[in-house]
Automatic annotation (TrEMBL):
Domain spans labelled ABC transmembrane type-1: 96-297
Family designation: Belongs to the binding-protein-dependent transport system permease family.
Membrane topology category: Multi-pass membrane protein
Keywords, alphabetical: Cell membrane, Membrane, Transmembrane, Transmembrane helix, Transport
Annotated TM spans: 102-123, 130-155, 175-197, 232-258, 278-304
Designated name of the protein: Peptide/nickel transport system permease protein
Annotated compartments: Cell membrane
Example of a GO cellular component annotation carried by this entry: plasma membrane
One Pfam entry name: BPD_transp_1_N
SUPFAM superfamilies: MetI-like (SSF161098)
GO BP terms: transmembrane transport
Length: 314
């Protein structure tokens, strides 16, 4: 296990280096004059242009600018927003909480509802199983922005149960305001988790050792919990982790739909205003979070099933 963890740590570092290079290259090599992008399309006096050229090292070679940017990022310095003239790290920190709360809320919904529906379908064959299969087949095809519109129309504007915009304040106020965004973000992922849970649990229930345990008179609930669900955890955990990481990027659509002050919405705003330093900083944070979450999922899956660790070492 120790060798596996070291190998995963090395792969994590390599992936982060490659990701940071892609983020910096994508923003730096985008069509157009970098100085125009930094200026946001506005006409600037010569002294301001000179300051920008010095601050962003526009006269230096590409690799020199990249290593300088990475070095500053490792010290928590992501540059200065040209639009707001504020520290990018502070701007990101002020919005990261909303995105983290939204993704965490959506993840809880995905695990509780998705695993619950999958178990019910696996343990109740017939009409209940068919209903869950049909329901999840429909929901899994609904993208977050469509789910957001439907929820706003029916549950916010129509019934008035939940607010349609804003993040709220306090614990209960935040939960109230984030309920619809979290449902919109988690809807398709919840259906996917329900379907994989149903399939894997049904597969485990048909295994010989499980049928033997049932024939020996062990309580059915104990057999399901100890033999079927435990062995089905690896694919469920893997899908849940990967989906959670992908929701970090999808949160941008939901945040825009519900006017939430999160990282995703700010990334769209910064892109439209051509605030290069903010775009680079947010992309680096999102990619780093995505890579770290995926690595943690792989380590957790290896801990649940040692065969993954052994297979990787062969």
């Amino acid at each position: 296990m120790a060798r596996y963890l070291v190998r995963r740590a090395v792969m994590l570092v390599v992936t982060l280096v490659v990701s940071s290079f892609v983020v910096f290259s994508g923003a730096s090599l985008a069509p157009g004059n970098p100085l125009s992008a930094l200026a946001g399309g506005r006409s600037l006096p010569p002294e301001t242009i000179a300051v920008l050229e010095e601050r962003y090292r526009l006269g230096d070679p590409f690799l020199v600018r990249y290593f300088a940017w990475v070095g500053d990022a490792l010290h928590g310095n992501l540059g200065m927003s040209i639009a707001l003239r504020q520290d990018v790290s502070s701007l990101i920190a002020a919005r990261a909480g909303t995105t983290a709360e939204l993704v965490l809320y959506a993840t809880v919904i995905m695990i509780v509802v998705g695993v619950g529906l999958g178990l019910i379908a696996a343990l109740r064959p017939g009409k209940v199983d068919s209903a869950v299969v049909v329901l999840t087949a429909v929901v899994v095809a609904v993208p977050p922005f469509v789910a957001a519109i439907v929820l706003i129309v029916f549950l916010s504007v129509g019934l008035g149960w939940f607010p349609a915009f804003g993040g709220g304040s306090g614990v209960l106020g935040t939960i109230h305001h984030l309920t619809l965004p979290a449902i919109a973000l988690a809807a398709a992922a919840t259906a996917s988790v329900a379907r994989i849970t149903r399939t894997t649990v049904k597969d485990q229930l048909s295994r010989e050792h499980v049928q033997t345990a049932i024939s020996r008179g062990l309580p059915y609930g104990t057999v399901v919990r100890r033999h079927a669900l435990r062995n089905a955890l690896v694919p469920i955990v893997t899908l849940t982790g990967i989906t959670t990481a992908s929701m970090i990027a999808l949160a941008a659509v939901v945040e825009r739909a519900f006017s939430l002050n999160g990282l995703g919405a700010y990334l769209v705003e910064a892109t439209l205003s051509k605030d290069l330093a903010v775009v680079q900083g947010i992309c680096l944070v999102l990619v780093t979070t995505f890579v770290v979450v995926n690595t943690l999922v792989d380590v957790l899956a290896a801990a649940l099933d040692p065969r993954i660790n052994l297979g990787a070492g062969q």
